[in-house]
UniProtKB/TrEMBL annotation:
Magnesium listed as a keyword: no
Biased composition (Pro residues): 228-245
Name of the protein in question: DUF1707 domain-containing protein
Keyword list, A-Z: Membrane, Transmembrane, Transmembrane helix
Transmembrane segments: 189-210
Comp. bias intervals (Polar residues): 75-84, 135-149, 163-183
Chain spans, region Disordered: 35-183, 217-268
Lineage: Bacteria, Bacillati, Actinomycetota, Actinomycetes, Pseudonocardiales
Biased composition (Low complexity): 41-55, 96-116, 218-227
Length: 407
């Protein structure tokens, strides 16, 4: 292999990224030194590649033995040697030996030596598909034909490789994958597709609303209206009883006389008699005892098959009367009776219960410091209800409630 071929091989290895710039310069200088020492002979044996220095530093100064200039004029000599002084050397090279054919391309060597070669990328990066960029554009530096350093896959079947003087060709990272902005054709196509979909949707809506099923209401609307929950029932306010009247003088004046025949067991009673006779539930009697009941009155009659009863419990004040009335309502509900709003009045609570053998209707309210209780029970529903309603109306008219807390 001649020294020209060795230099060409070095150029190819540098272009392929197999050599660093420092290794390239070191091996090139060794080849040039060997070429000068052996003379300009084209048929000479190929120069043996110099072994790398043991120090491993390819950037060290190479010492080239001086070459005596030929006696004949420079234009006739086979080689011309230019020696650069140490003061002029600005890079890692001290002496540059330039053959004559290279002087034809570069007539005068710069004082600081030839320009430094562009350092190749770090080995940590991946080599591009077409190899790393040429370190420096040279105009056929070795006097040989321009070599095609493109890889085999960069032929006519694939896009050509980017020129080596393009700095963007060697860039790596996300920016190398950016695409050129579109010309706006894609946006036009997207708008056209959206317009077609809108028109199709409008057409389907017109068909579903006015054409399908002869223009009748769509079934979806009907089903949605049927699925709507019914409006919440409004609670009808309780009827208002007559306005309150002056406080009665005694228990007898506070009660009306029920219809029918008087029954035995009625009359005035105190707390001891109330407990022994058990006219009322046990919890109500205990509450009356705690609240300080003083005396009471019971009026009871038999109206056909219906038994009627009127109670007046006298207590120290209206607060005690309200507590006993509330306890009576709780006891009736715990005993199985329910609130009957159809018969209740504002201030008067009515409870009822019915089974196959007996109908029960009862009411309670507060009259100043008294608790008024109305009781009616019998086997017949209609007779018991009619007797109760008659007695309730008469009692409320005579002594209307003074406390109206229920709604």
């Amino acid at each position: 292999m001649t020294w020209q071929e060795e230099l060409r091989r070095l150029d190819e290895e540098l272009a392929a990224g197999n050599l660093t710039a420092d290794e390239y310069r070191a091996r090139r200088d060794r080849v040039l030194s060997m070429a000068v020492s052996t003379g300009e002979s084209q048929s000479a044996a190929p120069a043996q590649p110099a072994q790398p220095q043991s120090s491993g530093n390819a950037a060290e100064t190479q010492i080239i033995p001086p070459v005596s200039p030929p006696q004949q004029p420079q234009e006739n000599s086979a080689e011309a040697t230019q020696v650069v002084s140490a003061a002029d050397a600005g890079g890692g090279e001290r002496t540059q030996v330039v053959p004559q054919w290279q002087q034809q391309q570069h007539p005068h060597s710069p004082s600081g030596g030839f320009p430094q070669q562009q350092p190749p990328p770090q080995y940590g990066q991946h080599s591009p598909a077409g190899g790393f960029a040429q370190p420096m554009q040279q105009q056929n530096p070795w006097g040989a034909q321009q070599q095609d350093v493109s890889p085999p896959w960069g032929g006519s079947d694939f896009p050509p490789l980017a020129p080596s003087n393009n700095a963007d060709w060697i860039s790596q990272g996300p920016e190398s994958f950016q695409t050129q902005p579109s010309s706006g054709k894609g946006k036009k196509i997207a708008f056209a597709v959206i317009a077609v979909l809108v028109v199709a949707g409008l057409g389907f809506g017109v068909w579903a609303l006015f054409i399908k099923d002869g223009g009748q209401n769509p079934p979806v609307a009907q089903s949605s209206s049927q699925q709507q929950p019914p409006p919440a029932p409004t609670v009808k306010p309780l009827p208002e009883p007559p306005a309150a009247k002056p406080e009665p003088a005694d228990n007898s004046a506070a009660l009306v006389t029920p219809a029918g025949t008087t029954r035995a067991g009625g009359g005035e009673f105190d707390l001891d008699k109330l407990q022994s006779a058990k006219y009322l539930p046990t919890t109500v009697i205990e509450k009356a005892k705690q609240s300080g009941m003083t005396e009471g009155l019971l009026k009871t009659t038999k109206d056909g098959d219906v038994t009627l009863g009127l109670f007046a419990l006298e207590l120290p004040n209206a607060q005690a009367a309200s507590a006993v009335a509330a306890e009576y309502g709780n006891a009736e509900q715990e005993g199985g009776l329910t609130v009957n709003r159809n018969l209740s009045l504002h201030g008067v609570q009515v409870f009822s219960a019915a089974d196959a053998n007996q109908q029960v209707y009862r009411a309670v309210y507060v009259l100043y410091n008294r608790v008024i209780i109305i009781d009616s029970f019998g086997p017949s529903k209609d007779a018991t209800l009619n007797s109760f309603k008659t007695l309730l109306t008469a009692q409320v008219q005579k002594a209307p409630p003074t406390e109206r807390t229920n709604n």
